Amino acid sequence: MRITKYTHACVRIEHGGRVLVIDPGTWSEPAALAGADAVLVTHEHADHVDVLRLAGLGVPVYAPAEADIPRLEVNGVSSGTEFTAAGFRIRAVGGRHAFIYGGQPDCANLGYVIEDAVYHPGDSLHVPEQEIETLLVPVQGSWLKTVEAIDFVKAVRPQRAFAIHDAQINGRGLGSVNGWLTEETDHGYRYLSPGESL
User: Fold this and answer.
1) What residues contact 178, with CB distance under 8 A and at least 6 apart?
2) Counting beta carbons within 10 angstroms of the beta carbon of residue 54, is it exposed (0 to 12), middle (13 to 18) or buried (19 or more)?
3) C-alpha to C-alpha distance for 103 and 108, rounded to whole angstroms
4) What is the 8-class DSSP label of residue 19?
5) 119-155: per-residue pLDDT in tens?
6) Is 85 helix (H, G, I), strand (E, B) or coil?
7) Shortest CA distance to 163 belongs to which of 100, 146, 130?
8) Which terminal residue of the chain has fewer beta carbons within 10 Å of its beta carbon, N or C?
9) Which of 11, 43, 24 lies closest to 109 in space, CA to CA?
10) Rounded Cα gap, residues 174 and 2, in angstroms
11) Is the pTM of this model over 0.85?
């Protein structure tokens, strides 16, 4: 699998000529969607779903069944559901967005396990029951502390971990967070810049 990181939480996965894009929000580059066969959306917030771009794309979009995403036709998914998108086997896990303050926001959020190997949790720190090879770990958010990101990586115990959810942090802060995750986890943590692939 080829994984390409785009700005914030957007990730593009390619294998055998198939293209799956996860969370192409309003901050991510339009190039992330070039040639996409299907799109997964973890939740309804604009930094994870660009409705105007997706409405004109003409490919299947999968999102939580409870998500409120006006003007976008989606295939509703529930936690525990297994389905195929762009030829990839997907399992939806989790269920709710992490709280920021006072129980808000409270909206549906699904993480997606792709091909029993890659896990994108959206805006949550849900630990799946199965082993994960590649974890896409949120590193910054109004709902997240660095210690929680570190503990999340340790709880999932992936073979490797890469940063997502990082667009609201400047270079100095990002350097600090990357340093903590590299030093405190033993799970192949690495930062990918937007547009970088592996």
Assistant:
1) 139, 163, 189, 191
2) buried
3) 13
4) E
5) 999 999 999 999 999 999 999 999 999 999 999 999 9
6) strand
7) 146
8) C
9) 43
10) 24
11) yes
